[in-house]
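Posting here for the record, re: N-oxalylglycine.
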Amino acid sequence: MTANTLEALSIEPSGKALGAEILGIDFAKPVSADICEAVMAAWADHLVLLFRGLSLDDDQLLETAGLFGGQQEAGSRGYFVKAGFKAGETNNVATRPGVSIITNLGDDGKLESRKAAFGNQPLKWHSDNSYVEVPPTGGLLHAHIVPVNGGGETSFSNQYLAYERLPADLKAAIDGKHIRHDDHRNTTGRLRPTMTAPTSRDDITGPSHPIVRVNPLTGRRALYLGRHYEWPSSFIVELDDDESEALLGELWDHATQDDLTWTHDNWTAGDLLLWDNRCTMHARTPIDFTQPRVMHRALIKGDPVIAA
Ligand code: OGA
Ligand code: MN
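Prediction output follows.
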């Protein structure tokens, strides 16, 4: 069957709390408005979509982001630019501003042959770029080279369900409250270039976002936590430090429970994941540092965060 027709399109839900594989789509070829609408509907229903067997160059990846609302430059890029790196000089500042290269290869193209290298590290649960004023609506991650049974599995967690399943007292405790999001550290927990470690909440200068946000795609409420680092870091604006830390601890325990998740545990070159960054979080297992992993990511242009 020809790709990108309604006859070819099929949806296979993961059977877990979120995630579905979509067959019959090739983003390297034209995607008509009705097909795009069908994929959007599947995205709204399943939060994370897996497409397989694709071979998209960076321009095609950015065109795909365009189908879902446009591209957005990653927040992390600016720190490397500020530190003096030029476009195309390092994987941290890719040639195209809308693309991030997520890899354990160094800028010389060789494996970063240390377990401790940044690109080999596990990534804790997070949503992308919650530390910017208008975080991206979604993300696209396209596998170019993946390790074989060598880690780098990517998990997603359904934050609509996290909100809906909150005990009544926790729901009441976060009603109308905001988190100020820490922008000092990257997803592995290391300080970003040009940043110094915060010593109190006054040093946390990222934006405040509502703890419960509404996703305009579905009208549903989702828990919106961002990232979790050791204090001093992100905090609940309306509470003092101790109360904030205690409540954030409870929320994070609740939001990362196994029955809210689905894991893409068999990455294959050519896979493309599309996630909704408003209502999911994701995490990654560590990578076998003897095997290359190269992923190209595009973020989807955000809309202002809507409070519940
Ligand atoms: C990301 C991310 C996960 C992975 O690209 O935003 O968190 O599996 N990556 O590399
Ligand atoms: Mn991420």
